[in-house]
TrEMBL record, chains A, B:
<dbReference type="InterPro" id="IPR005475">
    <property type="entry name" value="Transketolase-like_Pyr-bd"/>
</dbReference>
<feature type="binding site">
    <location>
        <position position="395"/>
    </location>
    <ligand>
        <name>substrate</name>
    </ligand>
</feature>
<dbReference type="Pfam" id="PF22613">
    <property type="entry name" value="Transketolase_C_1"/>
</dbReference>
<dbReference type="GO" id="GO:0006098">
    <property type="term" value="P:pentose-phosphate shunt"/>
</dbReference>
<feature type="region of interest" description="Disordered">
    <location>
        <begin position="350"/>
        <end position="369"/>
    </location>
</feature>
<feature type="domain" description="Transketolase-like pyrimidine-binding">
    <location>
        <begin position="365"/>
        <end position="543"/>
    </location>
</feature>
<comment type="similarity">
    <text>Belongs to the transketolase family.</text>
</comment>
<feature type="binding site">
    <location>
        <begin position="125"/>
        <end position="127"/>
    </location>
    <ligand>
        <name>thiamine diphosphate</name>
    </ligand>
</feature>
<feature type="binding site">
    <location>
        <position position="76"/>
    </location>
    <ligand>
        <name>thiamine diphosphate</name>
    </ligand>
</feature>
<dbReference type="InterPro" id="IPR009014">
    <property type="entry name" value="Transketo_C/PFOR_II"/>
</dbReference>
<feature type="active site" description="Proton donor">
    <location>
        <position position="427"/>
    </location>
</feature>
<feature type="binding site">
    <location>
        <position position="455"/>
    </location>
    <ligand>
        <name>thiamine diphosphate</name>
    </ligand>
</feature>
<dbReference type="Pfam" id="PF02779">
    <property type="entry name" value="Transket_pyr"/>
</dbReference>
<keyword id="KW-0808">Transferase</keyword>
<feature type="binding site">
    <location>
        <position position="272"/>
    </location>
    <ligand>
        <name>thiamine diphosphate</name>
    </ligand>
</feature>
<comment type="subunit">
    <text>Homodimer.</text>
</comment>
<feature type="binding site">
    <location>
        <position position="272"/>
    </location>
    <ligand>
        <name>substrate</name>
    </ligand>
</feature>
Length: 709, 709
């Protein structure tokens, strides 16, 4: 292959490698006519500086614990990373795998990096989130160091490298994350800004003219600028070395590059998101000293150039492994704990930390407060948990006894061993950072994140990424309905549950009382590959006689009946704070109508869907009962379980919570009256109940007409 | 009442007014034991400077077109605004209305400002969004000025004032908006930062230590600092006057205040989000020279102090009204267009701009491209429309012939008369800014916003606010399913539709072809109080013989049948790009099974739900047909319309789109085979079809098991 390259033009190994990268990017995108060549071509020297020089990792063991982490926040530039993973000798990243990019015979070279594949620390693509993932990883590394490092035993000292373009810096989540990183003084974070001035819609000056470096300095970053990142490999290598020595601040390296360098589309939007075209691809390869007719040429010298990386990586890991085994002798307790955590499993006694039902407070209390019992018990005992909130820790009860704040030690407010994380009013970055923590090493951290349930709509793009990546984070969403009261419709979730209920690989749980809260925590901790989000009440709910934590994982179960023996003729399904109301309504209805009424608590629709038909059918009354869902959210999704629903048909309003339940028709008398009227309409002339068929699902309109708006 | 105030202590009118505000805030929150007193008390002088001095408005006509707009981005501080609306003489804002704050007899004094009420320009509360609303209003004002102002006829010159706390500056959407405002050089925007150092969780130094002023300067703002905003009214008034004279930059005014000033809880989180308590309320009132035992005292001098505002406002409006009538004579065409726009109605010929079906391209094309026909026809003709994208204008086809970019004139890239808005990669701020534009004056602007459908999850918190506020924005979400192909699962929406389908007052439409696209646009433009979001395909879809734009508003309608006369035995419901697949599958199934198969196109579930039962029942086969939904999204919500569904059960993956439809089971052969097998299982021993009952909804699992992950 080497004969096809012009050695005079490519007269240094560095130049040859950079141009090989550029030609590969041109060829791989052209082959199946799609993808993003431009950034890869412009940033070739950044890639070389990272993988050949700056980063510490072992290509032969991509999972080595103390490796540096690389996060491609500009995920569309993934070819840049894939090519390096091939060059440096990741076994799985063969040339054939590189060629699966945009290929109908698809493989590891996905359109954006995917966490399943070696060398890809997180899945990126939705812009801005990678920066927050990197911040989460830097938090994880700092916390591990502060928790386990000992004098002469620096087990954890890895650096997190994030690569960003303009997009991630424009996205709000990126700005949230960078502000957080500066505040926390995460000097193990290095953000590389590839500034090529080009986005999909053209030159960046149409949208983004801020002084980025000044802004990053204002965020508390140490800022380095490189003028010619397209060609000046030495400057980049030097900057990366300098960055590693900076103390007390994260580092932002602004590198000016030329998108699509080598082609005549350089410096234009045309080089961003499409292949260069057959002629331009040939032109580019010629211009870079490569044979235009031969595809995907990788001269042997390129592999030679990267060869030292393999040995260096193996040596680094071996030294670390030795250190770790010495650590085992010197600090057996810490070593044992860490080993336990690395296994991805909590210690076997975790379930016993949750008090049995008999020990739960018998007086009514908010489910958020009941959850606080679990958070406190778990997080104060196991270093695996981080607890945090977007400025609502006292409201969400996500805090624990004896906690230390995760803060820069020099702040005087905590230190890096702290596991109470103050995310600030940055819901989206909170969850995206939690994803980074969870991705640092599978199961090593279980981040708990919290805010009002309504504001999980801000964090939804990150929670979706938790599910996609099978990262176990635990979300706490409190004040979960009109029960928030006076704060009004902006703070009252009506339609958000539908999103989380329909998301694949996601546990969305709304427990009815303190006992079901414990079941929700058990469910989340039993599921190592699935994120969870709990919806908790602001207001008091009673501890229900029939509640049973072990049944939460069934999704739904009968919690009350007006008859101990007879089959139900009417089934009321409630969730969360509405279950107690359903039980009161059932008693009233049974009296009025003389029917056997069952109440079902349904903390998780998705878990119910997974049960055998026989179970589901029995719970829903075996095709012989009328079924009504009662939930102070949108009716959306209820037709699968019920013939009718009492739901929210509009947004809420600002008034005290008890008043709101009355106004919107969830007062027990009103619930009973509406159902009674509906049951009346479902009777045939001979008095028998006729079950509704498809299309007859009814939303029993409530009292909202009383409201003036 | 006046006797109850210590005149020696309150020895100037300014001091008396400020302390009246503080005592009112303490009393009103204490009365029903809730709300946010602290900011109101700290920022009393900011409020005075705004409403008594800086802002131009007419309390007797809150809707005067050229008024300044005030946006309380820190919505929880609403009492500050309500009190001013009372003091300045807004008729509706009586003292009794003030007292409805947190009152079971609720009224206008909602927990956060609500757009329905006089003097409240937008509904705020979800932090950060108010800043973006204000940016949108500033864009609207600039655009109107550039479009209609003439020499000597400065019809539009209003200023937008945004009040923010720490929270809005931490939120990513706030940062997106501020970056955008700086780029656009919106010198009619003044952002007031009330820096009281306190959030819910305590001192701001636990989360937010960046150099905010330096950051704002980097964003392109002119920055002014005021050290003692708690007491130095003169400095605030001066800063506001200066701010109004700044040209070419928006202005950021950093004002240091003391939260809860006057109480012993000053400077603590305890003054933020709860009443001060009975004793502390009394103490505070005493300390401020008010009788602790008398509630809600407003000395007459306070009303006297504000009296000039009424005359000034009336004079300002009268002068403007005169100018406007002179404008009518001088510029009749512009006046007529503006008057038409102010009516909130598009000109009557808008519908004719959409080409009839016979003029639509007969060759298959993506629905996003078909939508481009409508965008181009409407936006190039009517100044009412702004068209914009989060850096994907060419992909979403939200652009139009002869467009000018909305840019600062000195940029050389456009000017403020432009209606093509370059939002940058800031989806959330895009939609929140669009809300501001739509709220500037009802119906004056119809902002069209666009990005890939998946990234409407970033913008969802703002789209929800569109619905809550009845603001008509039009959202375009393209690349709406696995049809996006190689970009992979991060870019493939699976579960997002559920959110938008369950949102009250929201038109979510997924058209099947170019004809239904026109119907979607008609539906959106017929609904003046409802926002819309369209999901469009990246890939080609054919123009369907049975498609009918007039039926889109019915939500669903039969689009194909294998028999012209016979009633259907099997109904397939498709949406968007899956309708054509359903028609092909219907033909195959009819051949194989000998059944009459109907295909229903269902562009909008919510509109279908609103039809009479008789219509819905007939469409779904009158209780005599098996019904299957076919949609490449989550099955969530389908049980209301179908007995089974072919859906996405997992996230997607990166591969070419046709490959993905095959892999995930939407290939026509596979669809037919799965349904055939299921229909077989629904037959009783005598061959008759037994319709499923509640709980028997089935998700027909597709070919995903073939995939390695």
């Amino acid at each position: 292959m080497s004969a096809s390259v012009d050695r005079k033009f490519n007269d240094t190994p560095e130049k040859l490698v950079a141009n090989t990268i550029r030609c590969l990017a041109a060829d791989l995108t052209q082959e199946f006519k799609g993808g993003h060549p431009g950034t890869v071509m412009g940033a070739a020297n950044i890639a070389i500086a990272l993988w050949r020089f700056a980063m510490r990792y072992n290509p032969k063991n991509p999972d080595w614990l103390n490796r540096d982490r690389f996060v491609l926040s500009a995920g569309h530039a993934c070819l840049m990373q894939y090519i390096q993973l091939h060059f440096t000798g990741y076994d799985a990243w063969t040339l054939d795998q590189l060629k699966t990019y945009h290929n109908p015979n698809f493989g590891m070279a996905a359109g954006h990096p995917e966490i399943e594949y070696p060398g890809c620390e997180v899945t990126t693509g939705p812009l801005g989130q990678g920066l927050a993932n990197a911040v989460g990883m830097a938090i994880a590394a700092k916390n591990l160091a502060a928790t386990y490092n000992k004098s002469d035993y620096e087990l954890f000292n890895s650096t997190v490298w994030a690569f960003t373009g303009d997009g991630c810096l424009q996205e709000g989540v990126g700005q949230e994350a960078l502000s957080m990183a500066g505040h926390l003084k995460l000097d193990n974070l290095i953000v590389i800004y590839d500034d090529n001035h080009i986005t999909v819609d053209g030159n960046i000056n149409i949208t983004f003219t801020e002084d980025t470096c000044a802004k990053m300095a204002a965020n508390g970053f140490h800022v380095i600028k490189i003028e010619d990142g397209t060609n000046d490999l030495g400057a980049i290598i030097h900057a990366f070395e300098t960055a590693k020595t900076v103390k007390g601040k994260p580092v932002f390296i602004h590198i000016r590059t030329v998108i699509g360098y080598g082609s005549r589309k350089a410096n234009t939007g045309a080089a961003h998101g499409t292949a260069l075209g057959p002629d331009e691809t040939k032109y580019t390869k010629s211009a870079l000293g490569f044979d235009p007719e031969i595809k995907c040429v990788i001269p042997d010298e390129v592999y030679d150039y990267y060869r030292p990386v393999v040995k260096r990586g193996a040596d680094d890991e071996a030294a670390w492994t030795t250190l770790f085994s010495q650590y085992a002798d010197a600090f057996p307790a810490e070593h044992a704990e860490l080993t336990q955590r690395l296994s991805g499993q909590l210690p076997a006694d975790w379930r016993q930390q949750l008090p049995p039902k008999s020990d739960l407070p018998s007086a009514p209390q908010p489910t958020r407060k009941s959850s606080g019992i679990a958070v406190n018990a778990l997080a104060s005992k196991y270093n695996t948990f981080t607890a945090g909130s977007a400025d609502l820790a006292d409201s969400t009860f996500v805090s624990f006894k004896g906690q230390t704040d995760f803060q820069a030690p020099e702040s005087g407010l905590g230190d890096y061993s702290g596991r109470q994380i103050r995310y600030g009013i940055r819901e989206f970055a909170m969850v995206a950072a939690a994803n980074g923590m969870a991705a640092f090493h599978k199961g090593l951290f279980i981040p708990i994140c919290s805010t009002f349930f309504q504001f999980w709509i801000y964090a939804a793009p990150a929670a979706r990424m938790s599910a996609l990546q099978k990262l176990r984070i635990i979300g706490v969403g409190t004040h979960d309905c009109i029960g928030i009261g006076e704060d009004g419709p902006t703070h009252q979730p009506i339609a958000l549950a539908s999103l989380y209920r329909s998301l694949p690989n996601f546990n969305f749980v709304r427990p009815a009382d303190a006992e079901e809260v414990m079941g929700a925590w058990e469910l989340a901790l039993d599921a190592s590959d699935t994120p969870s989000l709990f919806a908790f009440s602001r207001q008091n709910v009673p501890l229900l006689e029939g509640s049973d934590r072990s049944k939460v994982k069934l999704g739904a179960y009968p919690i009350f009946s007006t008859s101990a023996t007879a089959a139900p003729e009417l089934v009321l399904i409630g969730t969360g704070s509405e279950v107690a109301r359903a039980i009161d309504a059932a008693k009233l209805l049974s009296e009025k109508l003389g029917l056997v009424v069952r109440v079902v608590s349904m903390p998780s629709q998705a878990h119910f869907d997974r049960q055998p038909f026989e179970y589901r059918d029995e719970v829903l009354g075996s095709g012989k009962a009328l079924v009504v869902g009662i939930e102070a959210w949108s009716s959306y999704g209820w037709a699968r379980y019920a013939h009718a629903s009492l739901s929210m048909h509009t947004f809420g309003c600002s008034a005290p919570q008890e008043k709101l339940f009355e106004i919107f028709g969830f007062g027990v008398e009103n619930v009973a009256a509406k159902i009674e009227e509906w049951v009346g309409r479902r009777r045939s002339e001979d008095g028998k109940i006729v079950l509704p068929r498809l299309g007859e699902f009814e939303e029993l309109l409530l009292g909202y007409a009383q409201l003036h708006h």
